[in-house]
Amino acid sequence: MTIHPTAVVEAGAQLGKNVQVGAFSYIDHDVQIGDGCVIGSHVTVMRYTSLGTGCQVHAGAVLGDLPQDLAYRDEKSYVKIGNNCAIREGVTIHRGTKLGTVTQVGNDCLLMAFSHIAHNVKVGNKVIIANGALLAGYVEVGDQAFISGNCLVHQFARIGRLAMMSGGSAVHKDVPPFCTTRSVSLNKIMGLNVVGMRRAGISSDDRLIMKRAFKILYQSNLTLPQAIAQLETEFTSEMVQEVCEFIKSSQRGICTLAKKHKLEF
């Protein structure tokens, strides 16, 4: 373990094997930092925050500070970060806002500089959140999603598995799995996240199935319930069923296809 002489580690903090803490960083009590984590300079890790193994936290990040919620009443709540996450400069992650609740980041995530994870957000595994992206309270992000720079995600909105938000887009509706939003737009889909699916090892046959399914969903002139019924009847694909279940569980509605914009495959 290596702790810089200018760093402050409060009594009661639990640091694993081979942890490094850089200059002028502050580790509060009731913090757990897993084996092999590297905490850079000027990092603040507040109480009730835990990091898994092998995480790297860069200069100026603040983890586990109080939620920005006027209803918060100093309840004991948590931030839990998984294994092998890279948390870049100036990232902020806030605690849950109600007693016993958690803001959670999964394993193998990359949170780029100055992105913000608000209270009670749930981020899946292998998620990338680029510079300046802002996730409001209670947002849910599925595994392997990619949220590009300066994107805005409204509270309670959901980003599906392997979805991609293009730069500067904003949503207050749900983004279905495997979709890509349109840059500098509000609640607009422009097509499938083909690159993401290829990188995830999804076969060309399965991508073709998704192409057919999304034409039914977005270009068939069916109502959303009619499109879901047709998808559930016509396809046995687990990916298509995942999309159907995601949409049926949506509380905010889903993003629509941009006008005069054909689906991109």
Task: List its traits.
single chain; 265 residues; alpha/beta; UDP N-Acetylglucosamine Acyltransferase, domain 1; Udp N-acetylglucosamine O-acyltransferase, Domain 2; 2 domains; 9-stranded parallel beta sheet; 29 strands
Helix content: 10-25%
Using the alpha-carbon principal axes, give the shape: elongated
CATH superfamily of the largest domain: Hexapeptide repeat proteins
Distance between termini?
49 Å
For the secondary structure, the number of strands is: 29
Largest sheet properties: 9 strands, parallel
- How many domains comprise the coordinates? 2
**Percent of residues in beta strands?**
25-35%
Radius of gyration: 20 Å
- Report the structural category: alpha/beta
| Name of the top-level CATH class of the largest domain | Mainly Beta
Poorly predicted spans: none
The third-level CATH topology of the largest domain is UDP N-Acetylglucosamine Acyltransferase, domain 1
